[in-house]
Amino acid sequence: MTADSIDKAGPGAKKKRGRWMLLLVLLVCASPLIASYFTYYVIKPEKRSNYGTLIDQRAHPVPLMTTTTLDGRPMALAQFKGKWVMLMTGSGACLEACQKQLFAMRQLRLMQGKEMDRIERVWLITDREPLETLVIREFDGTHMLRADAATVAKWLPLDPGTTTDDHIYLIDPLGHLMMRFPRNPEPRKVYKDIYKLLKASAVG
Fold first, then answer.
1. What residues make up the domain containing 16?
2. What pTM did the predictor assign?
3. Which of 68, 138, 163, 200 could lock 40 by a disulfide, CB 3.0 to 4.6 Å apart?
4. Are 40 and 88 members of one domain?
């Protein structure tokens, strides 16, 4: 097609062509992650042994919600796109179970060795309770963000008889909620799930 024929096609054809080009670019960017999921969960179903529960991304899209750092600065979950995110929720009081989850996320990241920089840790704090300085220092490196409790509860799926505070969730590098780990999980099994996903994916 020559430049003259494109010009004669008019602005409608140019706009349509632009949309197709944008779609093509998006598909190229997303293809590594899509391919890794397809290989891991479809082509080799006999080897599928994930410990965490896979989440239907269409049923649980990441909501548009205001999240802020402890000093009140806006920081959206979208800012972590491009990384794998381990996510937990809980009160700022952070009692024993909360501290165990923070410890587990820190250790699970460290266990990934040279791949650990591909992972971020996020704690959504669902109330206005002040945090103890010792907790902040002990789990430095965890992004501690205040979020609306009702929005978080509506977004995150649960195991029967649990609350969002009982689970660690996993968000993929494209920003999709994709896995939930059970209450009081077995660390080695969680580690294996994350290890397999990092190994299968070229993204993040």
1. 1-48
2. 0.78
3. 200
4. no
